[in-house]
Amino acid sequence: MLIVEALKSSSPIDQIQIEGWIKSRRDSKTFSFLALNDGSCLDNIQCIVDGGTEAMANLGQAGLGSSVSITGKLVASPGQGQKWEVQVANLTLLGATDQEKYPLQKKRHTDEFLRSIPHLRPRTNKYGAMLRVRSQAAFAIHKFFHDEHFFYIQTPILTGSDCEGAGEMFRVTTLKPGVTDISQDFFGQECHLTVSGQLEAEALALALGRVYTFGPTFRAENSNTPRHVAEFWMIEPEMAFADLEILIGVAEKLLQNIPSYLLDNSIDDLQLFNKFVDKTLLTRLENLAKGGPLKHLSYTECIQILEKSSKSFVYPVSFGVDLQTEHERYLTEEYCQAPVVIYDYPKSIKPFYMRDNTDGQTVAAVDILVPGIGEIIGGSQREERLDVLLAKLKAAGLDPSDYSWYIDLREFGSVPHAGFGLGFERLIMLLTGISNIRDAIPFPKTPTTLTFQGLTSNLG
Fold this sequence. Notes:
Elements: H1 3-7, E1 13-27, E2 31-37, E3 45-50, H2 54-59, E4 67-76, E5 84-95, H3 111-115, H4 125-147, E6 151-152, E7 158-159, E8 171-172, E9 191-193, H5 198-208, E10 210-218, E11 231-240, H6 244-265, H7 267-276, H8 281-289, E12 295-298, H9 299-308, H10 325-335, E13 340-346, E14 362-370, E15 374-381, H11 386-395, H12 404-411, E16 417-423, H13 424-432
Parallel strand pairs: 3-5, 6-10, 12-13
Antiparallel strand pairs: 1-2, 1-4, 2-3, 4-5, 7-9, 8-9, 10-11, 11-16, 13-14, 14-15, 15-16
Helix pairs in contact: 4-6, 4-7, 4-13, 6-8
């Protein structure tokens, strides 16, 4: 039985079997008290081993981090703060731990130290809770889109296109060192790891109506900031028969739905983050879950607000500049003190596929920014008008023949459509109060850091 099931039991159980790792051990003259956890929940269950029994002999000197299998009785606990405890009848030591070498002693460790042992940090309360929140958040996302009549689709990880043009891409090749003839490569052309599934999602949305993809994306940027990793997960819905207003409505509803689900289903883990990471977390999530509209500002309004502020920015602001982190933080943390929806960006700083607005200067693009994190959602209405798209390709110096399939989508039954991308790790930061994205993913990939290197297979 999982410990989470035992702790939620409605009545005593005469015969119970549980497994787990020892989180703490306290010995008295006649008993040993074990706090056991199997990862299924935040709370430990207390197990009482009688002295002089075979179970005690099997336990031996096993301590923190050791794994055991226990059978016994689940009984009401006389102690405070716990409903049930286990009276141990039999105990099997599955795996002992060298107490002098075990790095996770019973104390608080720094995030920097725990990043050096990513294979062990999930055993700590904080990172176990983070991973359970990730799981529940992923389920909430799938449930939301299912309820909103989206189809879950899978887009390629290997790609020949640079969807966003926003950063360096990882090259994938089978060529041996020194061979430069691309025609001899596996695909006969350059291949990269994807930065976005948007382009493929567009093609599928223009057949299925509403689709979303949820998968890994990659950027080879030499960026060592608390908001960037080289491998991260993206949720990317795409909707046919949709404009920017519909897109924003879906994005806001999603951002409100997920905290609501987590507050109902992961409250113990959220309370840990509220106590030890961010004491305002629960209040913010509750406010977001209540469904109130987010602050809405056009890009032009944002520039005017920044220009009129008394802040001295490192990067000066004027119409046509891309908003920097310092600008985003001022808008979300000082001016609005809330998440902000920014829409209608200058066309000069956005990709060709975003739909031109009637003013001739801006496109129907949107970013949603949240305090402490910055951009968490970015999207746009796509340019569905064939003549306008062709003109934009020409203006950008792009060869239409390279975009033949994309043009086909506009030539054969084109419809207004829109989509956005939600960074999953940044969402986890929002849901937990974690301030560094490296701590919102199990095995972060950053410049010069690649976990589990050196593993090989000799299976032939």
